[in-house]
Specification:
This protein is an all-alpha fold and 452 residues long. The protein is built from 16 helices and two strands. The protein has helices spanning 9-40, 53-70, 80-96, 107-139, 142-172, 186-209, 215-222, 226-230, 235-240, 244-274, 298-324, 331-348, 358-382, 389-396, 398-418, 428-444; strands at 280-285, 288-293. It has a two-stranded antiparallel sheet with strand order 1-2. α4 runs antiparallel to α5. It is globular, with a radius of gyration of 22 Å.
Amino acid sequence: MRKIPDLGFWKLWNISFGFLGVQIAYALQSANISRIFSTLGADPHSLSYFWILPPLAGIVVQPIIGALSDRTWCRFGRRIPYLFVGALIAVLVMCLLPNAGSFGMTVSAAMIFGLISLMLLDTSINIAMQPFKMMVGDMVNEKQKGLAYSIQSFLCNAGSLIGYLFPFIFAAVGISNVAPKGVIPDSVIYSFYIGAAILILCVIYTTVKVKEYPPQLYVEYHNVSDKEKDEKVNIFRLLAKAPKAFWTIGLVQFFCWSAFMFMWTYTNGTVAANAFATPTIEVVKEGVTHWVLDTQSQQYQTAGDWVGILFAVQAIGSVLWAMAIPCFKNRKVVYSLSLILGGIGFASTFFIHDPYMLFISFLLIGCAWAAMLALPFTILTNALTGGHMGMYLGLFNGTICIPQIVAAATGGWILRAFTTPGQAPQEAGMLVIAGVLLIIGAGCVHFIKENK
């Protein structure tokens, strides 16, 4: 068995550089989707349901992309064709989604258009994102995988920082961050346009700079047997043979990604109510009176821009913590510690009413995010052989999608249980629940098996 050679820093950088653009798109989606649908007229109790489609699409698409790319060998590479196609689709959808309220459609039609666009955007982002993780597994030896995924984590958080700040920056230079009822503000629309342009440029850079290993060399580097190479993919058989690390990390992932789904869904309402004193208005739907935040108010839209700032602070915290993670010799210790810090950050948002004090909360949340981006994939890919690397990583995406689906499906019911009649929904309570989930996840890190 030939060993994968050490790669220079810039080769490792090039493998993941396109991830910068992909993450800008993902950040724009995660920070603005609740704002977009609230502006279109979505009820807060129904807000989490809009988030079900993206992970539902991901859980179907990712294993298919993994299986197909495991069997793809062409002049452009093995994984690169998929990331390029995914990026192209994402660019097109990014130009359409923020215009959901600008085409003269009814509210219900605009909602449906937005839902379909959101599903296509999340699916295409995942198609483009997953190959970067697979390429690290394909092209980087075990000794350097920690560094490679740390570079990927850095680029991920740098992209997040850029994407989160765009609406705030555009509003600061005079582009309107308010709009007529049912219309998305120009500051958000332009953010998606610029993000789409950066995404395609970054992906083109990686496509040009990275040359994947040819088939025979890949087989030698990963010690793929002829039987494994020619074996037909059977999902259930692969799952039955999956290393213990696959399942034990998956348990931790369930609590982590449920927590972050609540963050993406309810941070906007939490910040608007707690830190910006957004007024409430009375609405009547199907004969039932509800009190909700006034999404047309200046306070709500300013809070929406501030959420981008807070998510940017989270990205900064994640970058700083990602540099500290390699200093810990025990991966499980730093993984658990990171999740505990993130849990404290989530819970603290309930008690903080100063917009600037929320920086502390989101710096702590960034610690959990850094660990979630780097450590699971480092542990898992070290436990896998190369024959079905893509398929396993595609299936592992289920440990990201399933908890998001569960959280999205139950979020409205949980929020309703915490809502006092005559008051707007207490979305801040959902972030406290997110903190509890992260701390439970930290306890489950103990069960992770790192056996080769």
